[in-house]
Amino acid sequence: MKVNSQKIFKSCLSISLALLLTVLPISSYANNKDIVPNRNEVESKYKWDVDKLFDSRASFEAELKRIETQLIPKIDQYRGKLNNIESFKDYSKLTDEIEIALYKVYGYASMISDIESTNNDYSERLQLAESLYYTYLEKTSFVLPELSSMDEASFNKLKSDSSLKDYKRMLDIVQENKNHILSEKEEALLAQLGELISAPGTLHSKITLSDYEIPVITDKNGNKIELTDDKYYKILESEDRELRKQAYEARVNSYKKNNHALSANYSNNVKANIINAQIRNHDSALSSILFSEEIPESIYQNLVSSVNKNLAPLHKYNDIKKKHFGFEEMYIYDTYLPLNEDSTTRYTYDEAVDIILKALAPLGDKYVSDFENGISSNWVDVYPSKDKYTGAYSYGSYTTKPYILLNYDNTLDGLLTLAHEMGHSMNSKYSNESQEYKVSNYPIFTAEVASTLNELLVMDYLIKNAKTDDEKLYLLNKQINNIRGTVYSQVMFAEFEQIAHETLENGQPLSPDFLNTTWLTLAKKYNGPSITTLDSYQYNWSWIPHFYSSFYVYKYATSMSAAYSILNKINGPSGDKAVEDYLQFLAIGGSVPPVDALKVAGVDMNSSEPVDGLLAYFNELVNDYETILTK
Ligand SMILES: [Zn+2]
């Protein structure tokens, strides 16, 4: 059973980086290649000890062989017998054992490959582990259809048997999904079509990345500039307005050139979601996707409506910018101009850990000392080194440490990334310690609460302890943009997806004109009166990759809202109780649906309070910012 199969993917999807492609420049943690050290030059206390999980290729392969030849072949004997309590129990124990072992070998192979991406031995190990994982999935593909087509009496017997209580949650999920799971034959047919169904996403990346002809512009000195992402955002932050305008127009033109292809492609993506929802008996594409994550549709609708009611502070922020720069008209290409000098404050890794520990003090002694222990027991691979993966993530399995890969670069972003990833790792530590394997894995809807709360606590601490107005302005602006990118931008995306799906569901085609106009209307609404949103901005939606992970991005906004709500409770009069509740929430893993898990932390996502609270905080930040700026 693959209730936990997502564990094979890295659990962290760092919010502030990848998602804001169209909103903010992509920060890269990779340092200049010339100065990246060799791995053996990095002190061992700054390296994780993943390599110790297996002492040689031989021992790694021996474990693979044990799983492949001794464990996996046993699965078949349970086919057709899962209605028997003893068989079901033995089957479940067996697959728990396989999955725990499998995720350990897979995680190990994946992490060592990320450290030395050019090491052939390591990439072979990863392929071996991957192929074993797919064998396992294939061998267990009969289970879900067998359980969902089981007669009710037998199924209820499984659910009520006390010796199977560890599997009740998984059986509940199967039962909830019963009306949406097809027969074994139909599921197999659909699986065969899987690649075709996801083709629009692939095609999008081919058009926007592989086949994309990077535009070239010429600056006032006659120098030709290739508009790579990096260059583009650098130009948007530069003083030369004419160059900013040129860069913006060159980009928009290349979007326009592909508008028909990308519109048809997106329309197919939406169609695939709708057909999938229909054949699985769901009311709509939105409800089918939220249903699979146990999120009520009202949460999505409430989020969109709360944000719509709170656009004024965002418009005010844009207005502050316009006045500050003295623009008569402020265009999109003027909005990236930095309001402050970039902070020159740098933090060594040890200093960063120190600051984070102080900032997390409100979470109580236990959290802080467990955090400290994690740092000193080689959870974190800190520095960039040659051939190392250049992002950041938290990753581990049920029986390993919750490891973290960083490319620490002494900046505030680096410090926040450490706090963020440690949020995930602490969550894994507590849920693995407290829950049986089957329910240890927490869903994405709650995962980003633990990481975001740490970031909010750190920013809160830094803002409160800022020594000068300049430092405070810088931090306030950073926090404003963090919330802007995580809430306002994502909810604008969420509205766009919702309109597109509903339109097609109502039988209206998704023409390029319709998609462009929808986007432009939303952009004008979110930008507000201080930004002149040019008609040429209508094509920008088509470049956003996240529209191919449908109804996903809203979670960034809900997570941050929940995290802020917890922060408020912790800083409030019943802080001790709030901390206790929060630690309980971290330990809950996947043992209850995500909305119920958040209730344990005192957050009711069914009400508009968490989102409204966060946006009220955004409003305060904007007011504080204005006060200091106009002093
Ligand atoms: Zn994350």
The percent range for strand residues is under 5%
CATH uppermost class of the domain at 49-195: Mainly Alpha
CATH superfamily of the domain at 49-195: Oligopeptidase f, N-terminal domain
CATH architecture of the domain at 49-195: Up-down Bundle
Termini gap: 62 Å
Strand count, sense and barrel status of the largest sheet are: 3 strands, mixed
Provide the CATH topology of the domain at 49-195: Butyryl-CoA Dehydrogenase, subunit A, domain 3
Ligands, ions, cofactors? zinc ion
Q: Report Rg.
A: 25 Å
Physical arrangement of strands within the biggest beta sheet: 4-6-5
Question: Could you explain how this protein is built, in words?
Answer:
- By secondary structure, the protein is mainly α.
- It has a domain at 49-195: Oligopeptidase f, N-terminal domain (Butyryl-CoA Dehydrogenase, subunit A, domain 3).
- The chain has 25 helices and seven strands.
- It has a three-stranded mixed β-sheet with strand order 4-6-5, covered by helices on one side. The protein has a two-stranded antiparallel ribbon with strand order 1-2.
- A hairpin with a 5-residue loop joins strand 1 (216-218) and strand 2 (224-226).
- The longest helix has 37 residues, at 469-505.
- The protein is globular.
- 40% of the residues are buried.
- Bound molecules: zinc ion.
Topology, element by element:
Layout: H1 15-18, H2 57-71, H3 85-115, H4 120-139, H5 143-148, H6 152-160, H7 168-177, H8 184-197, H9 199-210, E1 216-218, E2 224-226, H10 229-236, H11 241-257, H12 259-279, H13 285-292, H14 297-309, H15 312-325, E3 330-331, H16 349-359, H17 365-376, E4 380-381, E5 393-395, E6 403-405, H18 412-434, H19 444-464, H20 469-505, H21 512-527, E7 531-532, H22 554-571, H23 575-586, H24 594-600, H25 609-629
Parallel strand pairs: 3-7, 4-6
Antiparallel strand pairs: 1-2, 5-6
